[in-house]
Design goal:
The structure holds two protein chains of two kinds. By secondary structure, chain A is mostly helical. Chain A is built from twelve helices and two strands. Chain B is built from 15 helices and no strands. The chains are: A mainly alpha, B mainly alpha.
């Protein structure tokens, strides 16, 4: 029989080790999956592993996909530490893009780079407003933010379809549901010519750094980390339950909305009905992969960005559906959660005989 | 507007409306019945949506390649198989249930999209009603009572059976005891982990059936992500029912009525812009229901299984 003894303080080395173990298990699982789908597993795996880093274009693609994931996950993790479950970041992301587009159009799609901050702030505000709904319903009526935030994703999707099909539809789009393109001045510039690496990624890195300092070097961060260690508390130490709910949802909603506006400005350059790749949901995986800490989340986001690009490549090379990336990401989360067992507990093998209790003499 | 009103009055009280409501409610009822058993045992499995999709694909594929008689158990089995993953991680490896459930949903969406690709857009004959033509021809009662496919009867037997099991059998009492206080139940000699495994597997089977109803009867076809949030609505229905089977049945049918009403209003030729907002209605209604039912914190806590979502680790 196996006995689990809680560890008092999991070491950083152990955490890193188990993360690597989780990645290896995911790769093993991936190979089995490819084999079952009738593909040569080693061949597919080698394409999956090597191609995302094989050219500057692929690396840039990886970073561009990791950017919004990291930004959204940074916000989500803050709430998850205190058991505030915002799982509707996808909706907040969409609202961010809608508000960003609204700002663009309200300003008359101006040819000035100075309007970019306004567009991004509008996006953040849109995400915050959308996240304020579950926050208000939770604090005033005790309604589960987990379910209400998720329901609002479906509402946000319909709102997006309405906007691009009816209100903002570009008359010159040949019937496609999309808005006009952003003025070139409003498009976040590329940092390296010829790649998709854009100035929005600087914002992502900056916010990650700020949150890392906040988490590890301030009193607020200390209180936040305490919340994780006292799972029943439902709040950050020194804050009331309501304040914790509001902080968590506004921060995560704001960052998801900002991510939506950045995607609008830097990647899509217009709003259409295919706007999201499901970043809001994938970011939940990233938050857990990064063990809810900002540095881990940056690494987790890069790893998941890697699976997106690798998934694209095996579709090209072996015709495997791009859902393979989703499966990879989900199984990565499973294995990371499972490997956590090793960091949280010392697993002891105690043999069968131990289980039989000898009556006291 | 008066035309719409007249339409509603003339339509609401018809037999076809009642039949449509039962049809719309059935996948929700099946999935929610399963999750009710799971939550009563003190476990929160947020993977309902993923398990429904697994059932939808397995049921569709097995029906198309073999027969409906194989499709129904295949759907239940596929749902249970995904549930087994959740059970192993959450019960044996003691992972966080919220995170594991979310992972299961994402996994279910991805894996069904991956495997189901060749089935997208392929045809399947809709399932025939269970009872004979002559019984269905009885006015009013015929279509409402005898006019359905096997899933509808399965869902009713399922919810009644769940009620009987939970509140009239010893095993059900033990399951509820485990859900209320796993430490005490363990101290009394109940096999907490084993019981929860069984509950989670049953929940997965029901979710699989709920999904299969959508792909085998309602549409009938396979599309990626075709459950469109039904699994999450099923989770909310349990809060609406405050964890009680008979209220769950009522809630599912009320929700079914709302879904049908929404679709029929869309069908009356309202302007295209309005349809987007009508499609939001079920999700907004879910939020409203959650708000109303959660308002009274004390009552909610009284009915909710006290151990729900908590990790159980026997002292060894």
């Amino acid at each position: 029989m196996i006995r689990l003894v809680p560890r008092t303080r999991p070491s950083l080395l152990l955490q890193a080790g188990t993360s690597i173990l989780a990645v290896l298990l995911t790769l093993l699982f991936g190979m089995i999956m490819f084999a079952l789908l009738g593909n040569p597993p080693f061949e597919v795996l080698s394409v999956f592993l090597t191609s995302p880093l094989s050219s500057l274009f692929d690396i840039s693609d990886l970073l561009v996909k990791a950017g919004p994931l990291i930004l959204i996950a940074l916000g989500l993790a803050v709430g998850y530490r205190a058991n505030i479950w915002n799982i509707g970041a996808e909706g907040q992301f969409l609202l961010g893009s809608i508000f960003g587009m609204g700002a663009v159009l309200a300003l008359g799609n101006p040819a000035t780079i100075w309007a970019v901050p306004i567009v991004l702030i509008a996006g953040a505000v849109g995400g915050m407003l959308w996240a304020a709904i579950p926050a208000a319903l939770r604090t005033a009526f005790n309604a589960s933010e987990l379910l209400t935030s998720l329901m609002l994703v479906y509402v946000a999707q319909q709102l997006l379809y309405f906007m691009v099909n009816q209100v903002w539809k570009n008359p010159l789009s040949f019937g496609w549901p999309e808005t006009v393109e952003l003025n070139e001045a409003l498009q976040l510039p590329a940092l390296i010519d010829g790649t998709g690496i854009h100035a929005g990624l600087i914002i992502v890195v900056t916010i990650a750094a700020v949150l890392a300092i906040l988490t590890f070097r301030t009193t607020f961060g200390y209180r936040m980390r305490m919340a994780e260690l006292t799972p029943k508390a439902l709040r950050f130490a020194g804050f009331g339950e309501k304040a914790t709910i509001w902080i968590s949802l506004l921060l995560s909603g704001g960052l998801a909305g900002l991510a939506g506006a950045i995607e609008l400005s830097a990647t899509f350059e217009k709003l259409n009905d295919q706007f999201s790749l499901g970043y809001g949901f994938t970011a939940i995986i990233v938050a857990f992969l990064g063990r809810l800490n900002p540095i881990g989340i940056v690494l987790g986001g890069l790893l998941v960005g890697f699976t997106f690009v690798g998934g694209d490549w095996i579709r090209v090379s072996h015709g495997i559906n791009d859902a393979a990336a989703d499966v990879f990401q989900a199984s990565l989360l499973f294995f990371v959660l499972a490997c956590d067992l090793i960091t949280r507990y010392r697993v002891q093998w105690v043999g069968h005989g131990h289980q039989k209790r000898v009556p006291a003499e | 507007m008066s035309g719409l009103f007249e339409f509603l009055i003339s339509d609401l009280l018809t037999v076809s409306f009642a039949v449509a409501v039962i049809g719309a409610a059935t996948p929700l009822l099946l999935a929610a019945t399963g999750e009710l058993i799971v939550e009563r045992s003190g476990v929160l499995n947020l993977g309902v949506e993923g398990m429904m999709l697994a059932g939808a694909l397995a049921g569709f594929a097995a029906s198309q390649e073999l027969s409906y008689a194989v499709g129904i158990p295949a759907a239940a089995l596929a749902g249970a198989l995904l549930a087994l993953i959740f059970a192993f991680f959450s019960q044996t490896l003691l992972t966080n249930q919220v995170a594991t459930g979310l992972a299961l949903t994402i996994f279910g969406i991805g894996i069904t999209k991956l495997i189901g690709e060749p089935y997208t857009g392929t045809p399947l004959e809709p399932m025939a009603p269970l009872f004979s033509e002559s019984l269905q021809q009885i006015p009013v009662i015929g279509p409402i009572v005898f006019g359905h496919d096997p899933f509808v009867y399965l869902s009713i037997v399922g919810i009644l059976g769940t009620w009987y099991f939970l509140f009239r059998t010893r095993a059900g009492l033990i399951l509820r005891a485990v859900g209320e206080d796993h430490s005490s139940a363990h101290a009394l000699g109940c096999h907490v982990v084993r019981i929860r495994y069984a509950a989670i597997l049953a929940g997965g089977a029901f979710a699989g059936l709920g999904g299969a109803y959508m792909s085998m009867v309602k549409t009938p076809q396979w599309n990626e992500g075709m459950t469109a949030g039904s699994g999450w609505i099923a989770l909310a229905l349990i809060v609406f029912a405050t964890w009680r089977p008979m209220r769950l049945w009522l809630g599912a049918y009320l929700f079914g009525a709302l879904l049908v009403l929404q679709l029929r209003i869309q069908g009356t030729g309202v302007s295209v812009g309005v349809t987007y907002f009508l499609t939001m209605v079920p999700y907004l209604a879910t939020i409203v229901v959650l708000v109303i039912m959660s308002w009274d914190k004390v009552a909610l806590r009284r009915h909710a299984p006290a151990s729900i979502g908590k990790i159980f680790k026997p002292a060894s």
